[in-house]
Amino acid sequence: MKFPLTIHRFPSLASTNQTLWELLAQGAKAGTVVISEEQTAGRGQWGRYWESGRGGLYLSVAVFPDWEASQSGELTIATAWGIATVLQNYGIPLRLKAPNDLFLVGKKLGGILTETRIQGDKITTAVIGVGINWSNPVPEVGISLHNYWLSQGVNPQIQSLSALEDIILEGIVLGYGQLQGKGVSSFLNDYQNLLH
């Protein structure tokens, strides 16, 4: 991404994606980020409810890709690949479940929700939403990073939620930049090797 990130923080929102769309309607630029300590109406794919209690990471990033509408799914793949790549640098053996789920030791650690606006046959605007379990309560099928480190008996390489935030933003920027610069074929094999 060739633009700075502008971060807006909130203690509580219905949905970071929803709030970011509202900011875009008011003239917010590419690189605008919305982060909330909790979501009261977080959504996953197909509109499913996403549990978003305090202690998790919930953020959305706006991009203006100007790509073919058929590339919509590639944005989610690129984001998943970018996040997995940077988290593995911190000793987290993240796996992916196509197209948008992040898994750790067979349990769901997080997810990605990409929403686009299309004019003609071009994606003009996209909002990339990411939720990651940090220390928040999770359902039986989920896992948080805190619980993972506890179960492994290892010292966390990521020391705080704000550090995780920086790492996830780095992953989104990496994925978007790679897709924009070199196309999906440049990381598709790596993405497929990460599939759960």
Description:
- With 196 residues, the chain is of the alpha+beta class.
- It contains 5 helices and 8 strands; from the N terminus they run E-H-E-E-E-H-E-E-E-E-H-H-H.
- It has a single domain, classed as BirA Bifunctional Protein, domain 2.
- It has helices at 16-25, 72-88, 145-152, 161-182, 188-193; strands spanning 6-10, 32-36, 57-63, 67-68, 95-97, 101-104, 107-119, 122-132.
- The protein is globular.
Q: Calculate the mean pLDDT score and round it.
A: 91
Number of strands: 8
Please identify, by name, the CATH architecture. Answer: 2-Layer Sandwich
Q: Structural class of the secondary elements?
A: alpha+beta
The proportion of residues forming helix, as a percent range, comes to: 25-40%
* Full CATH superfamily name: Bira Bifunctional Protein, Domain 2
> What is the count of structural domains?
1
Overall body shape: globular
Uncertain regions spanning at least 5 consecutive residues: none
- Largest sheet, if any? 8 strands, mixed
Distance between the termini: 28 Å
Computed CA radius of gyration, to the nearest angstrom: 16 Å
Top-tier CATH class: Alpha Beta
